[in-house]
Amino acid sequence: MIVAERKTIPELIEILQGHKKVLVLGCGTCVTVCLAGGEREVSIISSALRIASRLAGSSLEIEELTIERQCDNVFIEKAAEAIQRNDAVLSLGCGAGVQAIAERYPEKPVYAGLNTAFLGILEERGVWTEKCIACGACVLHEYGGICPITRCAKHMLNGPCGGSREDRCEVMPDRPCAWQLIYRRLKGIGQLDRLKEIRPPKNWNTSIHGGLRVIVREDHRI
Amino acid sequence: MDNRPLKIYLFFCSNSFDTDTARRYCAEQEGEELKAISLPCSGKVDLLYLIKAFETGADGVMVITCKQDACRYLEGNLRAARRVEAVDSLLEEIGLGRGRIKVIKPQEEGDVEHIIREVENFRAKISSLARSNSQ
User: Could you give the ipTM of this predicted complex?
Assistant: First the structure.
């Protein structure tokens, strides 16, 4: 899922400066699961903004709404009336959600209330970790399902670097060495031979470094 | 000068106190509005309940939990403490400053004296702070 965290209240106040009526719009998918932008967080952030606005002596009116998915026009339609009756939208969706709303309503200021952080999983209660950088050319099959690009601090395709201590990464000692994990995993599934292959440098054209990425499925276009 | 009554919300674990006990020991004082809210466990208290209390005019919020290691649901009182800390930090971001929300925990089972003392100290502290919804 996409993992995000909210911007601070002073940041949000500054972003919303000059607006009188704002719609705080949540998203019921990834950011709900990572406790950043679901219905509950919409209420908490709206309350915080109302208190901050009262303290500042301003009269910011806030409406709350959460739709199933902000990155999908079918669901955005359900927010149409609320978006129209407010001066601006503070989206608690991920970066894709914010832009989807902004594209759909070119006349309406749409602001990001969250910082979209990474693609990750819930590791344990209250802890999310990054698992994928969406490089566009997945190599997980070669590394036992553990991504060396995301999880190794040095992004090494031919590891380990030799600097790990007690299974921990030398760059970030609070995290496990990805190459230790890869070795254990490949050993466990009987594929240690994969480590004998030298991997060539990765082609990063499929990642963001190659520019805006688009996937086209012709079989779905008619 | 803001002359409206001081507004204090009291969330409490109903396994440690019943509403009558909470009201008797933490009775409303002159110039004060006290709202007591019973919870099935202090761990039921959520960031949303606490921030809504401040949005609806609370100047201070107390959360009375059961004694350490005595939670009927094992870790409810620990969760309550974490949530109170999160709201304290959020209030600081908002501009209300820290210290308007507090966990009160008995030292011993049925240690009402300690609770009353802590409640009184908290009231005194909140009285000395500016009203939370003053403009």
Answer: 0.90
B94 Cβ contact list (under 8 Å, min separation 6): A9, A48, A51, A52, A55
Can you give the pTM of this predicted structure?
Answer: 0.92
Residue B54: which of B25, B97, B24, B23 has the closest Cα?
B97
Sheet-wide strand order for A114-124: A2-6, A114-124, A127-132
Find the helix packing angle between A9-16 and A39-55, rounded to 10°. 70
What residues of chain A lie within 8 A of the CB of B96, using their CB?
51, 55
d(CA A194, CA A196): 5
**In A, which residues are within 8 Å of B133 by CB distance?**
51, 54-55
Window B:72-131, CB contacts with A under 8 Å = 90, 93-96
Shortest distance between the Cα of B113 and any Cα of chain A, in A, equals 34
Among A99, A28, A35, CA closest to A65:
A28
pLDDT tens digits, one per residue of B45-104: 999 999 999 999 999 999 999 988 889 999 999 999 999 999 999 999 999 999 999 999
